[in-house]
């Protein structure tokens, strides 16, 4: 059937002698404009991402010598379905400056790790497991005999700390991050406050007027510092401090993964800018590496993140009269085996550590 346009059709947009409707040109023009908008948006987003990467790379400090001699280290586990598990050693310190510069350069220093965590990302990238190690845990430090684990940093800098943790679990550390507690204040402010669960109420020894009530508490930057530092208010000292630090990190993760945070460029920019100056990482942890790992973990949610403390035999006294935390060899052996076989989730479930211990 043929169709011959009449006057009304010309009014509607046909041109005599043309092969199609004028509205087709308009549609193409709209598509061109839309494509241009998308391109501009992509360029803006690209510039934004580039700016974030520049901020992170320029403000964070690089640990030039983070690892011990290769001959002393465990072999890296092979990939499963294209990906290998990742082990990240996270150290938290209450001071920065010259002593930390020495530590990140592998020199002996008086710097000690107040917080020590082994973060394990399985090959399937479905969960993140974080094992807190008590800072007074009595262990063998390679070539230095037995001592509190946090002394490794003082005796041989970051490389010796890495070697010590690797020797405990027989697992290779892939990346290292050293975080200054002062950064927690800026992090908390950038996120607009952090919600934590207080299991043991206490009055802060550093902020006499500050009381942390049982249940949910929303912390500002100053309160966050007091919360993660406190140990004198607790009967079990560092044990509860570690639990509080885990609670704080859970609050940070929950707030960071919130859609309102991730979709707000200003918040993300403030977050990166506030935290980067207080982070030291090995040379392999640049912005591109962080972004790549973030993409691999994009489906991980707070409920997929498990934090627990390496089980111990409690407080004891060393031969030279130091107050120490006694290791539990059986727990270390089982966790080492679970890490090696990729079954840490089974160990967590068997010991009911899904919500900590």
Describe this structure in words.
It is a single chain. This protein has 357 residues and is an alpha+beta fold. The chain is built from twelve helices and 15 strands. Strand 5 (138-141) and strand 6 (145-148) form a beta hairpin. The protein is globular, with a radius of gyration of 27 Å. The protein starts with 6 loop residues before the first helix and ends in a 7-residue tail after the last helix. The relative contact order is 0.14.
Q: What kind of sheet is the major sheet?
A: 7 strands, mixed
User: What structural class is derived from the secondary structure elements?
Assistant: alpha+beta
Q: Indicate the proportion of strand residues.
A: 15-25%
* β-strand number: 15
Q: Report strand order across the widest sheet.
A: 1-12-7-2-3-4-13
Order of secondary-structure elements: HHEEHEEEEHEHEEEEHHHHEHEEEHH
What is the mean predicted local confidence, pLDDT? 85
């Amino acid at each position: 059937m043929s169709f011959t346009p009449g006057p009304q059709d010309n009014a509607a947009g046909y041109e005599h002698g043309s092969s199609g409707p004028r509205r087709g040109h308009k549609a193409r023009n709209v598509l061109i404009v839309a494509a241009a908008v998308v391109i501009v948006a992509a360029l803006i987003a690209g510039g934004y991402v580039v700016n974030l990467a520049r901020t992170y790379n320029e403000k964070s400090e690089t640990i030039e010598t983070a690892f011990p001699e290769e001959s002393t280290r465990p072999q890296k586990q092979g990939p499963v379905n294209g990906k290998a598990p990742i082990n990240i050693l996270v150290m938290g310190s209450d001071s920065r400056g010259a002593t930390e510069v020495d530590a990140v350069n592998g020199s002996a220093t008086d710097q000690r790790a107040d917080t020590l965590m082994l973060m394990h990302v399985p090959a399937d990238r479905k969960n993140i497991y974080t094992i807190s190690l008590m800072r007074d845990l009595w262990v063998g430090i390679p070539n230095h005999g037995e001592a509190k684990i946090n002394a490794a940093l003082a005796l041989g800098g970051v490389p010796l700390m890495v070697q010590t943790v690797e020797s405990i679990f027989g697992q290779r550390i892939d990346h290292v991050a050293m975080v200054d507690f002062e950064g927690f204040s800026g992090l908390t402010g950038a996120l607009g406050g952090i919600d934590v669960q207080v299991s043991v109420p206490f009055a802060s020894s550093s902020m006499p007027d500050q009381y942390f009530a049982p249940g949910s508490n929303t912390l500002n930057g100053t309160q966050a510092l007091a919360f993660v530092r406190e140990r004198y208010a607790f009967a079990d000292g560092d044990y509860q401090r570690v639990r509080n630090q885990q609670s704080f990190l859970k609050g940070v993760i929950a707030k960071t993964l919130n859609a309102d945070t991730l979709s707000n460029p200003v918040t993300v920019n403030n977050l990166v800018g506030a935290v980067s100056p207080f982070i030291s990482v090995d040379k392999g942890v640049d912005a591109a590496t962080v972004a790549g790992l973030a993409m691999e973990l994009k489906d991980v949610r707070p409920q997929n993140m498990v934090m627990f403390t390496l089980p111990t035999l409690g407080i004891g006294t060393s031969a030279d009269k130091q107050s120490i935390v006694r290791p539990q060899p059986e727990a270390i052996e089982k966790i080492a085996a679970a890490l090696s076989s990729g079954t840490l989730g089974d160990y967590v479930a068997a010991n009911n550590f899904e919500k900590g211990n």
